Request: fold
Amino acid sequence: MRRSIFVALFVLSSFLIGCNLVPKNEQPTARPTIPFLGGGDNDPTPTQQTLIVTATPQATTAPTATQFSNGGNNGNTGGVPRFSDLSFSTSAGGANLNTFSKGVREIYVRWNYSNVPIGTTMRREWYKDGQLFTSREETWSSNWGTSGRLTHIKLFDYTNGIDSGNYYVVIKLPSYNVQIDGRFSVLDGAPTFASLSFSDTSTNPPKTTFPYGTTEVYARWAYANIPVGATVRRIWYLNGAVFANRTETWNAAWGSGGTLNHVKIYDYDADGLTPGKYDVVIELPDYPSARVTGSFTIEGNVGPVLSNLRFATTANGTPATTFAAGTQEIFAIFDYANIPLRAQMRRVWSRDGVVVAERTELWDFNKYGTSGTVRDISIYDRTNGLASGTWTVSVEIVGQPSSNARTSAQFTIQATTPNPTISNLRFATTANGTPATTFAAGTQEIFGIFDYANVPTNAQIRRLWYRGGTLVAERTENWDSTTYGSSGTARNISIFDRENGLTAGTYQVEFQLITPNHGILITTGQFTIAQPPKATNLRFSDTGNGASITRFVAGTQEVFAIFDYTNVPPDAQIRRVWYLNDAVFVEKTEDWDEAIYGSNGTARNISIFDRENGLPSGNYRVEISFVGFPSSLVTNTFVIDPPAD
Reply:
């Protein structure tokens, strides 16, 4: 006999169509093999008496009647009986649905028919999770005619609601070997909305206050157990009055669970959205459990304020008005508030009354927002140092009449010879990479990048690399003036292990500039190499949350592989191999879905199954690992007993 093995493994992927969606099975659930049954007294008895097919056929949308005569063909007007276009909904004329929420009280099945003789026996069988639980036979009524669309038949439970599960429906005319079938699911949980927040883009951090001139505000919220085709309504209030109202059908592309992040309100005119307090209601009118509310404010234009302009040699350095000769960079730091959207900022740097640099640019709201402190504006000369003299700096928000929209201040660069410096030690995976303090497990090389100034030609440079307080690398050599010069940024010093990757842990690093006349100058920093991912505690059960089992009975249809995992990086891949009697039975490798599973937890939805014939008997061995990390491998075995003689 042919055996069809269907494997529901751990799916670690998601796709975005305006929202984040839940994972899907690796392979669709197999359609059960159901024999074609004729009518009669030997048909199965329903096992769930509360879930029955309606007893009195009464179409809410009357099918088209077809004239016929009883001329020896039992009322058939000619042609072979046919069924087509089967669908499901919550009403006789509702939208086509394949997913329903727990608690739904009735589900209609509708289909087209043609050339059906009056008086023909029709049989309907309803299966839940692969098991027949109710069936019904009746005679084809003359009220229905021989051709049309039947819309009155339904499954219902008006007391408790229809149970969650996967349903399969077969409708047939046994005498004519005509059959149509279809599937739908009832989710295990009521629809819910949660965590409504707002932002100026679909991905930026949440906000409750937006500056004057904001053109669009995104609403984002989490959802679960949402049936495709449900009605979703969004109402936006401005200062207590309805500002916008939108009703639409829940899109199949959004899935039943995840986070929706594409919905926004906007006004792209010059002044953007109207200032005021916005209240938002998002709900499924048919499901009271799915409702969230939230508020945000669009500020009015009260006029920008710039203040407290000061200067330092680093973005977070101690403010000063006098700096040593040879200083390479001066940061202009100032406070700001009430900056309108699409504002422009102008800076002018003058030395001894002569303009040295001038720049006007659009205010970067993604970086600065509407209020805060600017710390990344500077003037520099990293080759010779800034020229000595009295510097005047002015900053203004262009086109604003308020006197508070501009500020100015002065500092002095001395003319004396400056002292050597070494500073700003940071780390990256390449010489010109973005600095970071945390790196992924298995990183092979880390560069120590630092700034220096006024280094004499007879200096030495010493590097000390510690891991967890233990010295792991040390090197001292003469300063290479030809390569580095006296001032600049060193980018070619690194620690590496290109065979195995650097060992996980926290590294403390100290770079020393040893000079004859100024002693030892030091800059320090630290970074962390993350622990490698690991899978542990692999066990097996007959459900995702069941007790551990090592021996399963013959005919077992599904076995779950449950394991714990730690330190999984977002870009990891997971590999699973199922062996049967030492031969590869099923193998799967795919991307890890960080958004759904995180880096630590327990996986419970990996399974192998054959719901038609049961899994083959034999000795099974399962290996689970994260690709590129051999130490992450976990393996275990189980047995499916052979059938009894």
Observations:
- The longest strand covers residues 287-298.
- The CA atoms of residues 444 and 502 lie 5 Å apart.
- Residues 1-75 have pLDDT under 50 and may be disordered.
- The helical segments are 365-368, 481-484, 594-597.
